[in-house]
Every structure is written in structure tokens, then in C-alpha cells.
Amino acid sequence: MSAVLSRTKRKQGILHALLPGARVDKNTNKILVHTGTSNEIIKFNVGGSIFETYKSTLSAVPKSPLSSDKFLSKHFRESHRDYFFDRDPAIFHCVLNYFRTGELHLPTSVCGPVVRSELEFWGVDEVDIEECCWSRYATWATTLQDLRKLEEDRKNNLQLGEYPEKDNSSCFREVRRKAWRFFAQPSSSLPAKIYCCTSLSVIFLNIFSFCANTHEAFQVKEISYLDSSVTPVNSTQSVDAVEHSHPVLRYIDVACLVFFSVELLLRFLVSPQKLRFITLPMSIIEFLALLPDLIDNAMLLSPYAKGPTLLWIIDFMKLLRVFRIFRLMRHIPGLWILFYTLKASIKDLLLLLLFVCVGMLISSSLIYFAERVEQKELFSSIPKCFWWSVVTMTTVGYGDMFPKTNWGYLIGTATGISGVLMIGFTVPVLVNNFVLYYNHTTSTISREEERKRLAGDKKSGRFHDFCKIVH
């Protein structure tokens, strides 16, 4: 293949030397020569850079506007005897070389969107870009689309924007606007920063209470006698000890529930778009996290709260309190970017899962036939060997299943090495995506804050100018 390409390049070089503009078509392998035979030299001034070429060279790409005399006449300057274009000279240099050689190469210093707009202006298709430059150009275009999608999702999932400014807004509207800015923008003022720190502290306190409820150090024993109508006389009377969570944890849960409920209600009342606020993923997550606590406290007042089935359902619903950790996304951008990276890299994750499944199936089959005689109970079936394969490929190695035969050692070694390679191929993609999204989001947030600061300075400047005029 490389020999064929080198012969094609050599043939093309000979053609360029004999007849400028002649080239070999990459698809049909035919020699293409444009009909123009004029040796007239024309001069282009593109963005201040001077280019000269034969007029016959411009007819190498008939679909380009440069091959049209009508188009060129619009940009002709009689005083300078040249054609002036206020465009990027670096891209025009590549386009002109494409006219000469039939190969379109791109500079490394120009961004992809600029290349696309320039190629569209000069009438050159992006599919004509050579393979050595296409991967870099495609990466530029893909990165731009990903970053735009990131900004769109970030604003749709975490933000509702500002209140539209009005000249004659009511006092109530101004209060709502300032209150919404207080809740939505922690960096807008000192009280907003204090509220943000308080909200974070309550979140961590609630998470601590959720975990401490299950630890024996925070359990208290309540002794109850089986026959409550009889006062115990001696210690031999039958008693029943029931463990409950410490009352302090109960008070913490109630206080956190009140704080989160009031906060969610106030944010809903002052939100600029109430319907959209309800449908935001973050609002739904916050409500689901509050739901088990609301039901639990409501059931305490109900006479049917002692039913075992109902108590089991309430305990199961308490798992929804784990969603409260997602409230940190509103205050810590890196946490939201982590989940967005996993969502945006779903194809890479599926590819990793496919690699693991293929490796798991192959290695579990091999280890089963290698160890089924020596360790019949542990490696009793191929599905049971799936566990050993996954643990070995991920280099966890719990030690509950391990080979003892020589063939088993060989298969285990190959499984571990293949697992490291498979994970090493895919994990860098996730890391690169996270770094790209994190850097872009942090820079975007800082740029938005700077714009708001400059807008506030302009408003205050106009106010001072107005005061001077009044005085």
C-alpha cells in the first residue's frame, strides 16, 4: 500500500513540474488537467499577504469561485492591479496549494471553525482534506460541538437565568429578582456566600445523620417489659430490648428537613420560570430526597404507622435520601462535570463494557476447563467463573477463587494482563473528557462572573454620571 502511494506521489510531482495544475485523482487514479492554458500571472492580496499564481491554475477546481471571472472582477483593485480579499491568508495559502497540487493540507495554528468558514468561502469541500490533517480537523469540530452541548446542558439542568429587566418593574418583582440572585448565584454578595456555606454544612450534616443512623455507636437500647400491666419485682421477669437511633439524630433529621423544605419552597416562589423550575432534574432530585422524610414524619402521627409492611416500605424509601448528595452539584461544578463526563462518554463506557464481557467469556471458559478437576467446588461452572474473570481483569483479586494448576496460572496471568490493557485503552478517554469539560466550565463560569462585574461597573458608572449632571 505504501509503495502504491509513493508511486502516486512521484507521478504527481512529475506532472506538476511538466504542467502546473495537473494532478492525479485519488479516487479514479486518472490524470486531470484543466483546460486553461494561459500563462498570465495574477496577484492576490489576502489579508495583507501577497500571493501570485498563473490564472490557468485557478481553473483546477471549477466549482471554486476563484475560477469565475465575474467573482474576481468584484474584488479587483485598479490602483494596485491586484485582487483584494479580507480573509485569512494562512487558509488561502493552503487553498492555493490545493489548486496547484491537488492536495489540501491545513495549518496547525488555525482553529477548526475558522478553517470550515474559509473553505466554504473559497468553494473547497472539507472532504478533500488529506488524511494526515483530517483527524485534527475532525477533532476540532467534534470538540466544538461537545463544548456547545455541555453549555446547553449545564444551563438547562442547573440554571434558569436572570429575570428579564424592565424599566418600570414593581417593588415585589425587584424583591423576587434579588432573592433569586441570592439563591442562584452564591458569589453575588457576602450574604449569598454565607448562605451557600450554610447550605453545604446542612447537606454534610444530613449525610452524616443518614450514615450514623445505621452505626451501633449511635444506637440506644430501650427496655420494654413483655407484660406492661405488671411492675417488675426481680430481674428474672422477661424483658425485650429494642434498639433505636439516638434522639439527637432525630432532631438533626427534622431540622434538615425543615431547612431543605423551606429552601425549596422559597426558590420555587422566587424562580423566574416556575414550570421549568419544577421540571429541572435538580429540582426533581431534591424533591425525591425530601419525600421519604416527609412520609416518615407524617406516619409518626398516623395510628397505622406500626404495621410491619408499612415500616419496611418506609425504610426502603429512605434509600432516596442518598440523592441528597446530588445537591452538591449546585455548589461544586466538578461533581456535575463528573456525572456529565460519564453521560457524554457513554459510547466509550459501552466499548469498555464490551471488552470486559468478551474477555470475561473467554477467560472464564478457559479457567473452567483448566480447574474443574482440581477445584470442582470453586470452579463448578462457567457462569460462576465470571466472578473470577472480572475480579482478575480489574486487578482487584479478592483471593476467594484462584487457580492451582499450571494451566490455571498461565490463564490467570493472561487474564490479568489483558484486563490492564483493556482498561488502559479506554480510561484515558474518560480522563481527557473530564479535563476538557472541567477546564471549559471553570473558565466559562469565571468569564460570566467577569462580564457581570463589568456590567455592574458600567451601571454604577452611568449612575454616577447621572448624579453629576443633576448636581
When the domains are counted, the total is 3
Give the proportion of residues in helices. 55-70%
Gyration radius, in Å: 35 Å
CATH first level of the largest domain: which class?
Alpha Beta
Shape: flat
CATH architecture of the largest domain: 2-Layer Sandwich
How would you describe this protein?
It is a multi-pass membrane protein. Its main location: membrane. It is found in: Membrane. With 471 residues, the protein is of the alpha+beta class. Helix content is 61%, strand content 8%. It has three domains: 143 residues, 2-Layer Sandwich (Potassium Channel Kv1.1, Chain A), CATH 3.30.710.10; 142 residues, Voltage-gated potassium channels. Chain C (Four Helix Bundle (Hemerythrin (Met), subunit A), Up-down Bundle), CATH 1.20.120; 135 residues, Orthogonal Bundle (Helix Hairpins). The strands form three sheets. It has a four-stranded mixed beta sheet. It has a two-stranded antiparallel ribbon with strand order 1-2. The N terminus and C terminus are likely disordered.
Topology:
Elements: H1 2-18, E1 23-24, E2 31-32, E3 41-46, E4 49-54, H2 69-74, E5 76-77, E6 82-85, H3 89-101, H4 112-121, H5 131-158, H6 171-184, H7 190-212, E7 219-225, E8 239-245, H8 247-270, H9 274-279, H10 281-300, H11 308-317, H12 333-344, H13 346-371, H14 382-393, H15 406-470
Parallel strand pairs: 3-6
Antiparallel strand pairs: 1-2, 3-4, 5-6, 7-8
